[in-house]
Amino acid sequence: MTTTTTKTTTTTGRRSLGEWWNNLNRFQQWAILIPLVVFIYALPELNPPIITTEPGYDFPIAMFEVARYALIAIGLNVVVGQAGLLDLGYVGFFAIGAYVAALFTSPDSALTKLPFLAVLPIAMAITMVFGVILGSPTLRLRGDYLAIVTLGFGEIVRLLADNLEPLRGNQGFQQVGHPPGTHADGTPIFNNTDGTPWYWLTVTIIILILVLVGNLERSRVGRSWVAIRDDEDAAAIMGVNTFKFKIWAFVIGAAIGGLSGALYAGQLAFVNNQKFDVVTSMLFLAAVILGGSGNKVGVILGAIIVAYIPARFLGIAEYRYLIFGLALIVLMIFRPQGLLGARQRLLTYGRQAYQRLLGRGEQISHDASVSTDRNGGV
Amino acid sequence: MSIHHHLSSLYLAQSDSLISFDVEGLVDQFWSNTVDGLAQGSIYALVALGYTLVYGVLKLINFAHSEVFIYGAYATWFTFYALGFRPGPTAELAIFELVGFLLLALLAAVLVSGATAVVLERVAYRPLRNRGAPRLVFLITAIGASFVLQQLIFIWRGGNPEQAIRLLRPEPVFEIFGASVTNITIVIVLASILLWLVADTFVNRTRFGRGIRAVAQDPDTATLMGVNKERVIMMTFLIGGLLAGAAALFYMMKIPQGAAYQGGFLLGIKAFTAAVLGGIGNLRGALLGGLLLGLMENYGQSLFGGEWRDVVAFVLLVLILMFRPTGILGESLGKARV
Q: Which residue ranges run through the membrane (chain A) (predicted)?
């Protein structure tokens, strides 16, 4: 009954799913959400037979990897999906976060030791500073040049990790810190063989970040991002301070990247100069693009695909770059918006106004913004 | 004498900081760096021409051009292999044999690289053009294509670079200011400049080159004037691929362990830096940018140490894009000429 109202609606299952979700009342939404979240938390304990990655790959660790990728994808999505800035050096921020965590917690570093949970906000703050340093001169560039500059930045960060003596190159930092707490027998709860506590921590952080980013998207900031992404010149003419909002997107994305880097360092309890190469950046980008940039659910799906499939099917793990590369090419030709496309488009706003004019406004939120998210019900 | 003394004390003062500055080394090795930088730079210039041409015509950063290049490097290696040469000591060859084999390798490299570039354009970019996709979609496709081409080699040949097969032993021919110039350097620099001249003449003097410039300037009007846009685009990719193939042979002569599956990435990004440095879309800029980048990299390597060589290139890339994105000579493929 909702899908056939306008001819502009792309009548796909996804669109109707989104509308179905929005037409539920708050209570019904919670009734679905709460069991889903409980199920997500319980996953590593349940270890369901088909989903499990064992015996080839420890399942809780795999789940942590998936969650880590999801967090990265959500962060990169703010930059790529929301504001439309192609960032090929996101791994640089990830690396900075990992190194900040290592420098402040590892006994191999000369700096003052801090508790791990205190280091997480510090890692975010420092990556934000780097985001401003990189962003303020470069965000005035056109899109493809920006992509190359960020690529160069990512490589510079990696090479600095190689070359700067205090960063210890390949030797790296051992015994990176972890959150407090011990089991009854005195072993720490957060250790690098048990992925479950790390998974729970990351999922909790993801939920917090989703709420924060979701609120940002529904605010004036988010509407500015969408306007910039869809047509920067038009946005500027309408009085959107494009540069300011681009910097914001860039910096918020950087902070989330730094946070995930710090978590990665903590779980592995080791940081060295490996794993911060361009290929990793591309894998992050693939997660966002495959899932559907601009759509939070989509990028999480993309992250699950990119992180889970190589862990589940170890036979194809070697070919994952080939597969994701092919997937990018094919997707760009046949479905450039990704598996789940962005829901917020300028056209959507127009469509909403149109529907309201026809007296169908009750299907959509009262807010002028398009709220297709969980809090946006009537 | 006093200047020299002053410089060495500067070096001492800096030596315990994070990055040491070996000013003395820079001065001492200036000429040998210059010679080597020119050889390196002319390879960059040839690859940069491919970026510049495609960018000029399509406004597309052909991210997969680095793989077009590395396919040429593999073609060179397999040509030598098929001719019966094996990794190890340099073979003793009569001069006409040597020239013949090198020309054969050149032919193989340009054919493979050219074919890769054209196939890439047909398979990955043309469908997007037909759909009128936005520019970032092209760039993402290019990244995907780069991944795929790289991984195909990885699956086929594994992660280790091919062992060097050398046909031409580097021998000093003459000296300038105490820096010896090897036969390989002479061949690379002269052949690169010659190839650049051919490309420049082709684009600026021939009928087909006029078509390329017309499409770069205004694709729609060019089509109305009877230019076959699709053919021009294919030709642009082909020329870029041919030049990259030639660059691949020179690269393999200079850096024998060059054929590695991700070996193209670094060279590709440096060649792109060279193209932007000179002014992307500008053929003369590509040559100037390539040579300048080769020189600056070598000077930087002397000044900061070998491990900073790539950092010099990347910092240069970021700085140019930030402060002078049009490059030294400006972007000009599409400019009207009378």
A: 27-43, 69-102, 114-133, 198-216, 247-270, 282-309, 321-340
